[in-house]
Write a structure and sequence with these properties.
Length: about 240
């Protein structure tokens, strides 16, 4: 597969794949005489492994070190990554349940104890963290945790900045160059926190309008912003495809 095909398959940008190659994290199986990178099925499997590590907060340098260890076992890593993600999902489900209950309490439908208000906000315990430390080392897990904690404020500031910028443009054509450049910033910003393909990006935009909770939150920056973002995200995704 060529680099563009791998990018489309995985949702990772071509620029990111080039970077992974440059630092020796994901070196393509072959390079043609014309300079085109060619990726094997084994390369694709390794990329999947890398993205799971990234989702769990591991820095690229540490991922490279882990993959290069003679004792590294891909299947074993997948099994533990799954367990850690399930634990993460469990915490998120608990937090969502707390939000839903809080909304009902705010509307006067139920009463909520102070203890219930913080159910799910346990960021210090992960039943699989010690296992991860045993297999991958304290340094790897500590760096992952520090990376997540260290960027929270930066991400919030970045999110507010982009929302404010888009709100100022919400009356222009969503397909215009300035609107597309701004929504492109949002696409790349989201891909710092997760992995969004153009199709997933467009689907997220639809949710901004379909779910009134999203709409209400986004429109705090300007009435009609959610609709504008949905339309701009759809155009952006179509052009990427």
């Amino acid at each position: 597969m060529k680099v563009k095909e791998v990018a489309e398959l995985s949702g990772v940008s071509v620029r990111t794949l080039h970077h992974y190659d440059d630092i020796g994290l994901l070196v393509p199986e072959d390079v043609t005489d014309a300079g085109y990178r060619l990726y094997s099925d084994d390369n694709v499997a390794t990329l999947q492994q890398i993205l799971f590590f990234r989702e769990l907060g591991f820095p690229l340098k540490k991922i490279k070190e882990l993959l290069e260890r003679p004792s590294f076992d891909r299947l074993e890593a997948f099994e533990l990554q799954r367990e850690m993600l399930v634990a993460k999902r469990g915490q998120l489900d608990a937090m969502i349940a707390t939000i839903d209950k809080t909304l009902r309490a705010e509307k006067g439908e139920i009463k909520m104890t102070n203890e219930e208000k913080f159910r799910g906000f346990d960021f210090k315990t992960n039943p699989y963290e010690q296992e991860a430390r045993d297999r991958w080392g304290d340094e790897a897990v500590n760096q992952a945790n520090e990376r997540i904690a260290g960027v929270e404020d930066e991400l919030q500031d970045g999110m507010n900045r982009i929302y404010t910028k888009l709100a100022e443009l919400r009356t222009v054509d969503p397909a215009s160059q300035e609107a597309q450049e701004a929504i492109g910033e949002w696409f790349h910003f989201l891909n710092r926190m997760g992995h969004y393909s153009p199709e997933a990006f467009a689907g997220l935009g639809e949710m901004y309008v379909a779910d009134e909770r999203f709409t209400k939150n986004i429109d705090r920056f300007g009435t009609g912003l959610a609709i504008f973002m949905r339309d701009a995200m759809k155009v952006y995704a179509d052009r990427q495809s």
